[in-house]
Write a structure and sequence with these properties.
Blueprint: H1 5-16, E1 30-34, E2 37-40, E3 45-48, H2 61-71, H3 83-93, E4 102-106, H4 109-124, E5 128-132, E6 162-165, H5 179-194, E7 199-204, H6 222-230, E8 234-238, H7 253-256, E9 263-266, E10 277-281, H8 283-292, H9 303-318, H10 321-342, E11 346-352, E12 355-363, E13 368-369, H11 371-383, E14 386-387, E15 389-391, E16 397-399, H12 408-424
Parallel strand pairs: 3-14, 5-6, 5-7, 7-8, 8-9
Antiparallel strand pairs: 1-2, 2-3, 4-10, 9-10, 11-12, 12-13, 15-16
Helix pairs in contact: 2-9, 3-9, 4-8, 5-6, 10-12
Length: about 425
């Protein structure tokens, strides 16, 4: 018999420890998913406008078949030879610039970013890392230092290797050509050099998703890439959230932003929820890493995960999901702009493809964040059967990143409901 919500919460605290986070004031107990839909324990259906992990839809038949077929044949690790990992890496890197032709597969995005940082040290001989101050890249002891707002009190002294720049904010601090961001990074590179740490790498999500997905023109990252390369460092692009066609314009967000990273990290949607993540880089960088570190991952790149990941690539291609993201994203932007004209609380609209959102403000002139109001909206939407969240420095930007089969009809349901909620939710505390 299924536990009640209070029983689930009590047992989570007892069995998993305190402070295990949940979404919403009234947490949801999901028991089934299909396509862009989720069902709770009471049988109620919800439109999933949040989960990018089931990239090609919850319980996608092609992915399920690939997992079952391979699980019924063989699953082991990469110290034995198998074709699947080679076929997958070859197809995956074949979608990228030729310089990103070598890969390493892991189980989590945290591991992928951990490897990327060690690659930077192996290649440059230096340890100084730069990141933005409002992002998240994982939770290993090393990678957790990249998240300034989430740095642990105990970090093995690793914090001295990390410096931060302000996250881009196209709404409050416009930087239309990216030169301001590049200058800020150059300043922190100089600080690393002055401290004797040396500069190894800049780590960014090329679409700055955690930072609130600011509106930047295509090619915006070119100036900072030039600064990084001139200083002898590596550009690491974390596409755990922005990759696999989500922007609707390119398969990879770094292409949209006009750069080719030295190291690309991938995760979450790679196998539609089956655990596989990874790193792509040129052969020389991977060679330096493997010579400098003894690295082995029991489950990274196992045959079942690779089969699932290959099925995701096939589904994206066969169902033209990047084109779908572009079409539905354009429609979503128009719907959001119409809501902005109607509701003063929407200060800014942003996004590309199936990453979109709206920043909520108490006053358009002052741009004061409406963070508490945003929480109320998200919880009200949850009670109306729409699942999404928030992001950005002030946690006042709606975070909408549905599975890639999301349709115009799905978008209309989302925005019709949002219109009602914005009309009925009080802005004042």
């Amino acid at each position: 018999m299924s536990r009640t919500t209070p029983e689930l919460l009590a047992d989570r605290a007892r069995l998993m420890g305190p402070n295990v986070s949940t979404f919403y004031d009234d947490p949801v107990h999901f028991v089934r998913g299909e396509g862009v839909w989720l069902w709770d324990a009471d049988g109620r259906r919800y439109l999933d406008c949040y989960n990018n992990v089931p990239h090609v839809g919850h319980c996608n038949p092609r992915v399920l078949e690939a997992i079952c077929r391979q699980a019924g044949t063989l699953n082991t690790h990469t110290r034995y030879l198998h074709d699947g990992i080679l076929d997958y890496i070859e197809k995956l890197t074949g979608t990228m610039d030729a310089s990103l032709g070598t890969g390493a597969l892991t189980c989590t995005g945290s591991e992928a970013n951990d490897i990327a940082l060690r690659m930077a040290e192996a290649v440059t001989g230096r340890r100084g890392i730069i990141a933005t101050d409002a992002t998240y890249h994982g939770n290993t002891s090393l990678v957790s230092q990249l998240s300034k707002s989430n740095i642990p009190s105990v970090g093995f002294g690793l914090d001295r290797y990390f410096r931060f720049v302000d996250a881009p904010d196209s709404y409050r601090a416009p930087d239309p050509d990216g030169t301001g961001f590049a200058a800020a990074v150059a300043e922190q590179i100089a600080a690393h050099e002055a401290a004797g740490t040396g500069f190894a790498a800049l780590v960014v999500c090329p679409y700055f998703l955690n930072e609130g997905l600011p509106n930047h023109p295509d090619g915006w990252l070119k100036p900072v890439a030039e600064v990084v390369r001139k200083a002898g460092g590596l550009l690491i692009c974390d596409e755990v959230k922005s990759g696999f066609g989500r922007t609707g314009t390119h398969l990879w967000a770094h292409e949209k932003m006009g750069v080719v990273p030295d190291v690309l990290t991938l995760g979450k949607p790679m196998a539609n929820g089956h655990t596989v993540d990874g790193v792509a880089a040129n052969g020389d960088i991977v060679k330096a890493f493997r010579q400098g570190y003894r690295y082995f991952n029991t489950f990274g790149g196992n045959p079942v995960s690779c089969a699932a990941a290959m099925a995701v690539l096939d589904e994206i291609e066969d169902k033209a999901l990047v084109a779908n993201a572009k079409t539905v994203g354009a429609h979503a932007r128009q719907r959001l702009l119409a809501l902005k004209d109607k509701h003063e609380v929407i200060g800014d609209v942003r996004g590309s493809g199936l990453i979109f959102g709206a920043e909520m403000v108490l006053d358009r002139a002052s741009k004061e964040p409406a963070s508490t109001f945003t929480d109320r909206v998200i919880n009200a939407m949850r009670h109306r059967g729409i699942i999404h969240s928030k992001l950005g420095r002030h946690k006042n930007t709606l975070k909408i990143r549905p599975p890639m089969p999301f349709s115009i009809a799905n978008a209309d349901l989302l925005f019709d409901t949002l219109d009602e909620v914005l009309s009925e939710t009080p802005v004042a505390p």
